Every structure is written in C-alpha cells, then in structure tokens.
Amino acid sequence: MKYQLTAMLFIGLTMSSPVLASGPVYLDELSVQGELAVFKTQSAKTHTPPECVLAENKAFWAVDLATHSGRAVYSSLVTALSTGAPIAIGPGTGCIKQSGYETPASVTVKAAQASGSNGGTSVRFSGIIQRGGRTDCHNTIETRGSRTMRWEDYLQVRDSVHEQLQNMTTINMKLYLPGIFQSTQSTFDERTQHYTHTALLKNDQVVALGHPTRNHITQHGMCGILQPGGGLSVTNCNDITHYACVL
Questions:
Q1: How far apart are CA 109 and CA 146, in angstroms?
Q2: Residue 239 backbone dihedrals phi, psi, to 5 degrees
Q3: What is the pLDDT of residues 98-126, one digit of tens each?
Q4: What pLDDT digit, counting tens, does each position of 146-185 carry?
Q5: How many domains does the structure of the chain reveal?
C-alpha cells in the first residue's frame, strides 16, 4: 500500500485548476535569475498565458524570491527537483515584476512514499518526554532508539501526538518541533532605523522573531514549537520544555 503526503503552497488566495497535461507533472528546469526563481515543467502548458508574457518565456513560470511565499515555493521546487516528486500548478493572471514571466496562482508539490507497517505511515510516534540535562529521545528509557519529531513526521502522526497531549498538563509546555521554518525576512523602517524580523512557518503562518533590532537576523536562537491545539509558534531555544519522539 502507498500513501500520499501533499504539501500546498498558495501564492494567490483563490483555488485554481491545474493548467498542465493530466497525469503526473515533473519539473524540467529550475534556475535563479536575480530575485526570480524561474522554472519549467516537462509537460507543456495547456492554457493561454497572459498577454504580458514574452514569447520566449511562455513555457516558463517565475516566483518572487523577495517574498516569503516566493522563497517557500522555491524551497519546495528544489525538493521536487531533487526527489522527482510530481507537482501541480494553478494558472496566474499576470506577470511578476514586469519580467515577462507568468506567475502561478498556486503550486502543489506531492510526495508519494511507500508505507511501512504503521497503518500507512513511515514513522511511528513513541512518546513525549520532558527536557532535562542530557535527556533526549534516543537515550530515554520510554523512547530509547527514537529521534526528535520534525514537522514532516508530525503530519503523519499528529493524531497520536494530540492523543497523548490530552492526557498531559500542557500549561507552559513548549514542545520542540524542528523544521517548521520556510523562510525569514527583515524589513527596515526608515523612521525608527530598526529592522522588523518575521518568519514564514510551514503552516503558512507568519510570526514575529523577537523585537525590532538595528541589525539583520535569521532564526538563530529561535526554535519552533507545537502548541497543544495544533498551532505553531516560535520561542527562545533555551525555553524548550519537552520533546516529541518518533521511530
């Protein structure tokens, strides 16, 4: 049996039908041109591109690397190209930055994986442990041999995770969840002469990274956490209280 894990990254706010040939569609080219990520699929477009698209660019798409959503799509396209995962693209209604490239309304990257013996998932949830000293998933008796759960793991075992959370005291809990950052961005305010720092998370949520500063920063020192209700957030890595573990 096989299962399919689908991650959707929307550039627009509306759902759009795929605009490529039916069946699996795969990337053929992916390149960076300045602040644009330009890509082409092996299958030809089946719709008529917007009038702003230059003749030599009609087979291509582009996303803006200066935006959170553009960087997120680019990251997923890199994954699709390296793993051979199929994609689906929703048609855009215009060009990006007057570049002559069509910008898609949506990009969907689908990763099909073989299942294991865990009801269609390739990982198994082994428990939640409290952080302390050298404690980690691998060397704790209850979870020996396991590893820290990442975002991709959580998508497979979320029901088991929240079942255990329901039986725990979650007040002030900060459950570590690595791999939730898609991109970070710093915006300079001319008036205050400070940078405001934000991050785009894997659930498409944008969060602030600390207070405005006089310097650029990344997510260094900030860790992703899973909230008891299923939302994502960030905190200082030193404040992590628990780990979730998977095999």
A1: 28
A2: -90, 0
A3: 899 999 988 887 754 443 334 445 789 99
A4: 999 988 889 889 999 999 999 999 889 999 998 888 777 7
A5: 2
Give the contacts of 237 (CB within 8 A, at least 6 positions apart).
Answer: 221, 222, 223
Q: How confident is the model at residue 85 (pLDDT cuts 50, 70, 90)?
A: confident
> 158 and 71 in one domain?
no
Determine contact, residues 68/181, Cβ cutoff 8 Å.
no
Distance CA 189, CA 90 (A): 35
Pair 63, 148 in one domain: no
Domain boundary at 58, 83, 114, which?
Answer: 114
Q: Read off the pTM.
A: 0.57
- Cα–Cα dist 133/108, whole Å: 41
Full residue range of the structural domain in which residue 156 is found: 117-247
Question: Does 77 share its domain with 191?
Answer: no
Spell out the alpha helix ranges (H) of 92-205. 151-165
Contact of 74 with 63, CB cutoff 8 Å:
yes
Distances (CA, A) of 5 to 84, 89, 107, 120: 14, 17, 15, 11
